[in-house]
Amino acid sequence: MSLDLHLPAHGRGRGLAPALRQLLRQPPGSWDLPELPQVGGPLLSQGAVADSQRLAARQLGAEHCWFGVNGASGLLQAALLALAPPGSRVLLPRNLHRSLLHGCVLGQLEPLLFDLPFEPATGLWLPPSAAHLQRVIAAAQASGPVAALAVVSPTYQGLAAELPALVAVAHSAGLPLLVDGAHGTGQGIAAGADLEVLSLQKSAGGLAQSAALLAQGPRLDIAALERALLWLQTSSPSALLLASCEAAIAALTSPAEGARHRRAVAVAARLRERCRRLGLPLVSSDDPLRLVLHTAALGINGLEADDWLLSRGVIGELPEPATLTFCLGMQPPQGVAWRLPRQLSRLRQALGGAPLGPQQPPPLPLVAQLDLPLAQAWRGPQRSLPLGEAAGAIAAEPLCPYPPGIPLLVPGERVDAARALWLQRQSRLWPGQIADTVRVVAG
Ligand SMILES: Cc1ncc(COP(=O)(O)O)c(C=O)c1O
């Protein structure tokens, strides 16, 4: 029997939001409805969807909520388009999900990419502190006006920023803050952020592609948000996915589901304790339901660890060169607290060795401007170059290990010698995930 520790967080249905589970018991297809007057849709003010969006906003403490059926990806793009007029500059973190770059292309925005604190032992980018963000904003505003700022919190590994402090820094610099809370449950809006996007399959019991955009405060133009949503969402939103949004958010705040969450957290605590007793190194995470194994401390690349475990039926979520992240989900699999440590001990026996050295931080400036406009680089003529020959060239495509879709290189960035060397090392650390060639702007 496989041990599924990957997203969606409902874990093959075990942890689906109760109302959704009930709906799926109905005859197949009976729930696949159009925007009938009683049902409505995310951009209509009347009907069941509008009512349930209003309720969801109240449940999560926002002023507005829109359900999305194209994942957090679609809603992040809409949020960005609404925040920044064409031609304006937006400050985006280096650990951004690629959908924000797609939003920049669609909205003709100029991304300013800001560096993040980097932890060499784990190779993970950490959420920015308020002081770090203050330096970033000052550096960006020194070269011209900025329309908006985005941060990711929590990260894929469950590392959470001090959001109230980041909101205060953004607002005192006159910037609206978009929180990519794809892995969270509304902490951004609770901290006072202007916009937050949730991916309801990642830390709630919804189906893949169900997502929510939360909004509040005086810095937003609600008409612009609705217009951007109209541009980027289908005109036939799936009633099943809309029901999934409603049910997942309702479950986040229901007492019965609260009890289930506490049981899941208790399982996670037993699992951590067992790992600790066996000397299995874990990276601390702010999300109790994300378990991050520090494979580098065992002398193992996370991608190799993942391959080894996969062939033994343990399906993790996110392998990286120094870590492997497991998602325990809304209802962790039976016996995970002893089955996973047992397999991890076997992994250590089979592949373990001397700890790997520190991971090399990417050689990046605090705030980077692109050398060529994003869309021009991405949509113009391109050619392939071996990474070893890329120094001096301008990237034409993102270089993205998948998941999570975080680009190591962004179209329009010039690859300097230090970056080319770093990318070559990265391609060895991400075998099979990063090609040893890169697409660059031709000519
Ligand atoms: C931080 C972050 N934001 C956004 C997304 C996109 O979410 P979705 O898959 O719901 O479109 C992801 C997906 O992995 C993510 O990790």
Give the tags.
443 residues, Aspartate Aminotransferase, domain 2, Aspartate Aminotransferase, domain 1, 3 domains, 8-stranded mixed sheet, 4-stranded antiparallel sheet, 18 strands, binds pyridoxal-5'-phosphate
Description:
This protein has 3 domains: 235 residues, Aspartate Aminotransferase, domain 2, CATH 3.40.640.10; 97 residues, Aspartate Aminotransferase, domain 1; 72 residues, Alpha-Beta Complex (Ornithine Decarboxylase, Chain A, domain 4). Helix content is 36%, strand content 15%. It has 14 helices and 18 strands. The strands form 5 sheets. It has an 8-stranded mixed beta sheet, with helices on both faces. A 4-stranded antiparallel beta sheet has the order 11-12-15-14. α3 packs across α8, α5 runs parallel beside α6 and α10 packs parallel to α12. The longest helix is centred in the middle third of the chain and has 23 residues. The radius of gyration is 22 Å and the shape is globular. The chain starts with a strand and ends with a strand. The model has no long low-confidence stretch (mean pLDDT 96). The structure holds pyridoxal-5'-phosphate. Pyridoxal-5'-phosphate binds next to α3.
